[in-house]
Amino acid sequence: MSLSIKDDEIDIVIGALRPDLTSFMNEWRTIFSRFHLIIVKDPDLKEELKIPEGFNLDVYKKPDIDRVVGTSTSTIFSGYSCRYFGYLVSRKKYIISVDDDCYPAKDNKGILVDAVAQHITNLTTPATPFFFNTLYDPFTEGADFVRGYPFSLRSGVQCALSCGLWLNLADYDAPTQALKPEERNSRYVDAVLTVPARTLMPISGINIAFNREVIGPALLPSLRLGGEGKFRWETMEDIWSGMCVKVVCDHLGHGVKTGMPYVWRNDRGDAIASLRKEWEGVKLMEEVVPFFQSVRLSREAKTTEDCVAEVANVVKEQLGSKDPMFARAAKAMVDWVKLWKSVGSST
Amino acid sequence: MAEPATATQAAAPVVALLKNELDIVIPTIRNLDFLEMWRPFFQPYHLIIVQDGDPSKTIKVPEGFDYELYNRNDINRILGPKASCISFKDSACRCFGYMVSKKKYIFTIDDDCFVAKDPSGKAINALEQHIKNLLSPSTPFFFNTLYDPFREGADFVRGYPFSLREGVPTAASHGLWLNIPDYDAPTQLVKPLERNTRYVDAVLTIPKGTLFPMCGMNLAFNRELIGPAMYFGLMGDGQPIGRYDDMWAGWCTKVICDHLGLGVKTGLPYIFHSKASNPFVNLRKEYKGIYWQEEIIPFFQQAVLPKDCTTVQKCYIELAKQVKEKLSKVDPYFDKLADAMVTWIEAWDELNPTGPVPNGKAA
């Protein structure tokens, strides 16, 4: 059922927060080498990047980022947000992005998971957000819509975002991982499912893919914690961006899928150290979730850019006064839309 | 290729959870041979057999099971004129079993469902998994990407607000099927050989505001929390529709659960579904339903229950009112169904006169 996608419609964007990408690139070689890669170096990273030979790639470092967006703007791409620069300059239809501490996983049969192929399958088969299918993705081999599923809803909608999962180190927050320091995710759930319309979820940036043509502008660097660090436990930028994306997708009638593919996420960092350093993100979600659940976009918002601008406005009005971080996030969203229009749009 | 389990004895539980608090309701028209395979898992529990079809036929229950059996004569005797709400010649009659039960939990299973094997080859104790699902909270307000956070080896992911981590009580647990999947007739006709061999190792809460097709083949629920909503409608003999009994109950149940702040889970456990019913017979039964569901679904998606509906019965009566108002124009059947929904609640309250049961908070 999926369309046949040419390799040159895909960009793989990697945010490099660590300098030595040798083992990362070598582990992914059989899966990545067919595609063009965009590697964006965290502008705060001082050491030189080490990248093995044999890939078709473009590397962007601080000077490149400064040149494209200006030195004052380039600060928005610090840390994990460096990947958004890659999304901005890409000209491909599909983008796949994994963290640089993730490796290919093995499925229940011991076979290496081609995360790129699975993300592309997810993005090129319809999503079904308006009614839940109890056998999960009906477009998967060996599955279908179940009895009771209305026929008028069976053609589905375009899938704009594919959210993958993680074996080994799951994407827990610091308190959760600190409480269960030995817990690792060993459960491989053989499913992809559509996240229902108007249902929100924490969209992790660790392993995602999206249709850049459809929702590119909605994945954005905007919320930055005061103490944001270089471990996922110390960030919320992707969670915030993901809430925006889901609200926009729901409004425009696009689908979001979650589930496979899995990647293997390496042990890194110390949850307790991160916990001592940063509670902010955890507290924030208490405001952020009810806020996004209440956002309703206007009928006039028909493009992704318009939707993002409207969300930014609501953020400013309703959350801006509660914490300057939200006011800054709203401004960052408005700036991003402008940046996308000038730099991100295809010429 | 999926196969049913054979070594069920080895997997029998040491402790039968909720032994005195759960009834197993089984509708049958033929025989109960399938119970032999389930014996190690089911024997500690009380069974309620609802015999459909000819009441003069004797249904033999395998030795050693503790059970009560009701045929059509019993249903007529117990309910009198209200028996009109219980379907005849359709497994929808099973909901009579829910009504006469005195237990807190119900597990219902079809007589062509056998013990399945998990990927390691181990026999699956479906009842045990349903109980685990019902005894742990649901999380309908925000989706957890690692599925049920209360399962061993899982938890809430980064970004999940702590204030939502307590969850809400679970009202229903919807299990799945290996081998013959629960497809409608058109799909069965197009794919007669398709078998479900995918074991998806997940339980998840169906989010608030999202409807789903609830299959009654492998289902458990908290009777005290949601029992009166589990009316399986007017199907079978003398009715224009069949094979929509569980669907109807599922849509009503979900709307009410969403309103009262209760959760519905789906996923594990799997059973092995052995019998594919005749797709041509199914098509005739479902035919009207396939058209009507195009109207029914938007009706349920837009249904709003007033704040003063604080019990399941009140919610259900209100839904019946709305069905009469909005769906009668689709077909006079819905007018009859709305009346039957009210009769059901009256019968439920008569047989269960303990007064309003504690529910979740109304939304």
UniProtKB/TrEMBL annotation, chain A:
It comes from Gossypium davidsonii (Davidson's cotton). Glycans are attached at residue 147. The record marks 147, 154 as: Required for activity. Pfam families: RGP. This is UDP-arabinopyranose mutase 5. The keyword Iron-sulfur does not apply. GO terms for cellular component: cytosol; Golgi apparatus; plasmodesma. Its main location: Golgi. It comes from the Eukaryota. Coiled coil: none annotated. InterPro entries: RGP (IPR004901), RGP_fam (IPR037595). GO terms for molecular function: UDP-arabinopyranose mutase activity. Keywords: Cell wall biogenesis/degradation, Glycoprotein, Golgi apparatus.
TrEMBL record, chain B:
It comes from the Eukaryota. Keywords: Cell wall biogenesis/degradation, Glycoprotein, Golgi apparatus, Isomerase. The record marks 158, 165 as: Required for activity. Its EC number is 5.4.99.30. Signal peptide: none annotated. Its main location: Golgi. GO terms for biological process: cell wall organization; plant-type cell wall organization or biogenesis; UDP-L-arabinose metabolic process. One of its GO terms (cellular component) is plant-type cell wall. It holds the Pfam family RGP. This is UDP-arabinopyranose mutase.
